[in-house]
Design a protein that fits this description.
heterodimer; A: 90 residues; 2 helices; 93% helix; 0% strand; B: 131 residues; flat
Chain lengths: 90, 131
């Protein structure tokens, strides 16, 4: 009975780890499109207010892409750092 | 991700299809409410965000699974070139159809909704396992 309980707990822990990994990967996938979309929306809005079409949209698109790539790289390095202790344990 | 767990693989394979489905739904709705061109731009945004996700997944799987320096460089270069292609498409849309860029951005953002829903589903699954 104890053995089955331990197995069940191990399975639960594995599933939790899998779900966390999926969530981390999903957040990595979210960073770039959301930054680009925010840059596009902000640029469009500023262009409309200031009447500078299409310069603000170009600038903010580039800024959004740069920030997206930066946060993607940061997230990736964090993921790598989390992976390393696991590798040394096994 | 060939070495990925079955649950993870299933979710990561499902996301692009869900993004395409949602953007198609949005495109049909937009073409009824506005015009056909708006619907086409929404669909184009959805297709490009799906491609972006697939390319990012490929690059990340190479980096995370192989973890070698040359793999990192090669996948970063490939993803960078693909990102440039996406940016070039967006620039062309801004230059020639600057009033329709919001429709493209709406389609491009459909991945945010899909990933949010998947994250909520994963969290609810986590809570069920905790209980």
């Amino acid at each position: 009975m104890i053995l089955s309980w331990i197995r069940q707990m191990a399975r639960k822990r594995q599933r939790k780890a899998e779900t966390r990994k999926v969530m981390a990967l999903s957040s990595l996938g979210l960073m770039l499109p959301s930054s680009i979309a925010v840059g596009l929306f902000l640029g469009y809005l500023l262009d409309k207010i200031l009447g500078t079409r299409p310069w603000m949209i170009f600038t903010f698109l580039l800024l959004g892409t740069a920030s997206g790539v930066y946060s993607l790289l940061r997230g990736l390095s964090r993921l790598e750092n989390e992976k390393r202790p696991e590798d040394t344990e096994t | 991700m060939s070495n990925a767990d079955p649950v993870e693989e299933k979710i990561l394979r499902r996301i692009p299809l869900e993004v395409l489905g949602l953007s198609l739904l949005l495109a049909v709705t937009a073409s009824f409410i506005f015009d056909l061109l708006v619907g086409l731009f929404v669909l184009a945004g959805g297709i490009i965000s799906t491609l972006n996700f697939i390319w990012l997944r490929q690059a990340l799987s190479k980096v995370l699974l192989q973890g070698k320096k040359h793999a990192l460089k090669a996948s970063a270069l490939a993803f960078g070139l693909r990102l440039m292609l996406i940016l070039a498409i967006i620039f062309i849309i801004i230059l020639f159809f600057s009033k329709k860029i919001i429709a493209f951005a709406a389609g491009f953002s459909s991945i945010i909704v899909v990933l949010f829903v998947e994250a909520v589903a994963a969290m609810s699954r986590l809570k069920t396992w905790k209980n």
